Structures are given as structure tokens and as C-alpha cells.
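so i finally got all the pieces together for this one. its two components total, 323 residues if u count the protein bits. some of the lines might not be protein, just check the labels. i wanna see the whole assembly predicted at once instead of chain by chain like last time, that was a mess tbh
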Amino acid sequence: MARVVVDVMLKPEILDPQGQAVANALPRLGVSAVSSVRIGRRIEIEFDGEPDLDTAREIADKLLANPVIEDFSIRVDEPAGDTALESA
Amino acid sequence: MRIGVVTFPGSLDDGDAARAARIAGADAVRLWHGDPDLHGVDAVVLPGGFSYGDALRCGAIARFAPVMETIADAARGGLPVLGICNGFQILCEAHLLPGALTRNQHLHFRNRDQHLRVTSTSTAWTNGFTEGQEILIPVKNGEGCFVADERTLDELEAEGRIVARYTRGNPNGSQRDIAAITNAAGNVVGIMPHPEHAVEALTGPSLDGLGFFTSALRYLAGSAAGGQLTGGAQR
């Protein structure tokens, strides 16, 4: 399977009110040892042939992430669990 | 003068924006997201709503609509463009304006009449106001919190490109109470609240929104006469 996974996260300096709302709910689960929760987005891109990291990076850079507020990382998703990691 | 209003899949306020343009005295021309032709309009409004269902991020998909490629080129060439709410988000995504609009800090959708202070009257869309004028127009958004890095915010302040700020309460946590900004040339303006909903006594809290549309007409009349953009101080 020629799958590339893109993870998009808000930049560290950008407030994540959704993550805060989740963090604030944790005590109600009886969890108290969590200092912060941040929420991002995982996108799976399936290529017809070989996974194309360059194209995936272009897709991520132009569309999937907004560079003003978000960072992204991309990697080929290997079925055997052997992953090539790359950050942008 | 012909003011074009774009309809994207999911636009909500295109009808009101066209109506506001007509009330201001313009011919409103409906533009379609899939048609790159601007049909000879003299200015463009990108209306509020939820283009493409806000998929991915607000405005992220609309930015790549055929009509947006033409508008982006024309905007760089000086075409007056007003982005309202979702339109503001589209302008940021298209990099025609700096920064980004993010989820309201308190996570609630805000829908109320909002006081603003007009802080720049040297744009194509605000030249009919007076500097510091307080206006009242509706705000309604879930993702209206303007963010940018400190350097960009300082630049916007220094260059007088913050067009309006929230007063008597910031509805969404926007940095430096920013409600509207402009590009360096002053022809592209993005605003989060909705001037097109404040153009008639029957439905709006005031008629203050009309000033944005009449400003554009005044700007276009000045351009047609070969004049330069005039600020509110010269009214």
C-alpha cells in the first residue's frame, strides 16, 4: 500500500482552545497527571503507485497545513511498521 | 459601478452582500466559484458562510476555486476586494492578507451586534468613515480569532493596516482586538463582522455597514477620475 501519512499540528505558540477544553475535562475521568493536551490532524494519502514524498510534501505545504499557524510532518506508512520519518 | 459577489458552495451571505451593494448604488453582479471570468466587475466581495463546508480549514479549499485565481491576480493589480467573515478567512488562506483566523478562544459561536472602532480610513472600503468612528454591525462566527506572529502584528500597527478593532468587548479573542485588516496597498480588506447585515433599518442594528460599500464606490469614482485614494480626513 502506497500510503503517506501527514500529521498537522498547531504551532507551539498558537493557543489550542480545543485541547484546553479536553484537558479541562480530564479530572472528570479521574485523570489528574496531565499538564497539557494539544489536538492535531492526521491525513492519509494513498498513491496509485509508489508513495511520492515530494508530492505529498507539496500537498501538505500548499493545502493541508497553513504555515501561519501549523507545522506538519510526513512519513511513508509501511505495512511492516518500518517507517521513514521526515519533518518539515 | 459593478460590484461582483462570489458564490461558493456553502456561501450564506452572498444574497445580502449583493443587496447591500445595490442599496449603496452599485450594480451587483453574481460571480460563480467555478467561473474564472470576473465579467468586468470593478470590485469584488467574498461573502460570509461556510465555503466547501469549512473542510480542512475555513477558506482552505475556496482559495483554489477557479474564480479565486483570477481574483488573486486582479487584487495584486489593485482591484478592490472585500472579504467578509468566511471571505476574510479565504483572503488569509490565499495569502492576500497576513495572519489566520482560528477557533474562537472560548469555543462558542458568537452572534451579536458588535461595536467596532474604524482605525484606518485610507482603504478602498473605509474611506467614507472618519478615523476613530465607532460603528455597530453584527458579528457571527465560530472561527474569528485573528492570530499572527508579533512581528506581523507590529507591522500591521506601524503601517496603519488595522482597519477596525472590537470595542466594548472582544467577541472571539482576536489578538489586539483586530476585527479588520488591509493589505499594503489598501485595496484588499478582510473583516470578521458583517457590514452587509447593517444596511437597512428593518433588519440591521444600524446603517453603518453601508459605509463600506459606498466607500468602494467613492474609491472607484476617484480612480476613474484619475484621482488618488483619499482618506476620511478629507471628507
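The first strand of chain A starts at residue 3 and ends at 10.
Chain A has one domain: 3-87.
anyway lmk what u think
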